[in-house]
Write a structure and sequence with these properties.
Elements: E1 3-8, E2 15-18, E3 23-26, H1 30-36, E4 45-50, H2 61-75, E5 80-86, H3 92-101, E6 109-112, H4 125-137, E7 146-150, E8 153-156, E9 161-162, E10 171-172, E11 180-182, E12 187-189, E13 208-212, H5 220-227, E14 232-237, H6 248-256, E15 261-265, H7 282-288, E16 291-292, H8 298-309, H9 315-323
Parallel strand pairs: 1-4, 1-5, 5-6, 6-7, 13-14, 14-15, 15-16
Antiparallel strand pairs: 2-3, 7-8, 8-11, 9-10, 11-12
Helix pairs in contact: 3-8, 5-6
């Protein structure tokens, strides 16, 4: 029987309702979770690694890096066929993307979580864990990097995003759709990624800030990021990747200070592109040296920029790694 590493980091999948608190809190470890559904043990020989019981919002770039280091070490073992990482869904897509950007092994990794706690009817943790284990055991999964697996759907880590606060089908791949699904009798892949980006870096740069645009927004938060020591800034713009005219001077000051600025879009679907030419438009920003995030959402663009800056500060290399495969 194949051996699969189950790396437990916490999240709703390990929570239960606490009457004293009046809300759900971390409670279950990996072994308790596996004991909740004994059938999981029949899928593979499961080796447990207890990393922590962190809710999604408690995950940091440093912790994501640590998880990636654990995976790199454990997947190098010849007896490990693949790995499943349990994670809080609030930041699951960010961790999954960081893991994918650093993943060089052909052995597959699936990141899974739950939308309901063990105290709620229809606790989805065991089903999601089962689907994740079955995914990494599929021969078709080899060489495809890191997946996000919830609600029987298989998504690429670079494309998956949480779209609903409480629905079981919350994870979607808005631009290109899922890679496949986990059916009762088999794992089915409908497509695979043509280009997967891997960024080798000795560390991650944690001082990368994210600022969101809205109607009438100025550049105060961008200036604050620059003045307080940010090494990179991601701006979540509107539409095709546009900002308000009031924000442009602050973006220029950041660029003049040698800080890479990346523009993403707050839209759920679509790609950043410089098709408009007014002040604050994508074309204006492009001319100033702003980098484009492609189809990455702002949270993922931040992860990518943080990893790139852990490797290099050379402007040409930063641009090449940030926009590789997108422009």
């Amino acid at each position: 029987m194949a051996r699969v590493l189950v790396l437990f980091t916490g999240g709703t999948i390990g929570m239960r309702y606490d009457p004293a608190v009046g809300a759900a809190v971390p409670a279950l470890g990996a072994r308790e979770l596996l004991e909740h559904d004994p059938a999981l043990q029949s899928l593979a020989e499961l080796e447990v690694f207890e990393y922590g019981q962190y809710p999604g919002p408690h995950m940091t770039l440093e912790r994501m890096w640590e998880v990636s280091e654990i995976l790199r070490r454990e997947l190098a073992r010849p007896d490990i066929a693949g790995a499943v990482v349990t994670h809080g869904t609030d930041t699951l897509e960010e961790t999954a993307y960081l893991l994918d950007l650093r993943h060089t092994s052909p052995k597959p990794v699936a990141v899974a979580g739950a939308m309901r706690t063990v105290s709620e009817p229809g606790f989805d943790g065991p089903a999601n864990l089962s689907a994740a284990i079955r995914t990494v055991l599929s021969p078709q999964a080899c060489g495809q990097g890191v997946f996000v697996v919830l609600n029987q759907m298989i998504h690429a880590a670079s494309e998956a995003t949480k779209t609903d606060t409480q629905q079981l089908e919350t994870f979607q791949s808005p631009v290109f759709g899922p890679l496949g699904l986990v059916d009762v009798d088999r794992v089915i892949f409908g497509r695979s990624l043509i280009d997967r980006i891997v960024i080798e870096a000795p560390r991650i740069e944690t001082r990368v800030d994210l600022v969101t645009m809205c109607a009438g927004a100025d550049g105060r938060f961008i200036d604050f990021a620059r003045e307080s020591g940010a090494r990179g800034i991601v701006v979540e713009g509107t539409g095709r990747g546009n900002v308000t005219p009031q924000a442009v001077p602050a973006i220029q000051r950041a660029i003049d200070a040698g800080i890479p600025v990346v523009i993403a879009t707050r839209c759920a679907h679509g790609r950043v592109l410089d098709i408009y030419g007014y002040e604050g438009s994508g074309h204006d920003l492009r001319q100033r040296g702003v980098l484009f995030a492609g189809t990455l959402n702002a949270a993922k663009a931040r992860i990518r920029l943080a990893l790139i800056l852990g490797r290099t500060s050379d402007p040409a290399e930063v641009r090449a790694l940030m926009e590789c495969g997108a422009y």
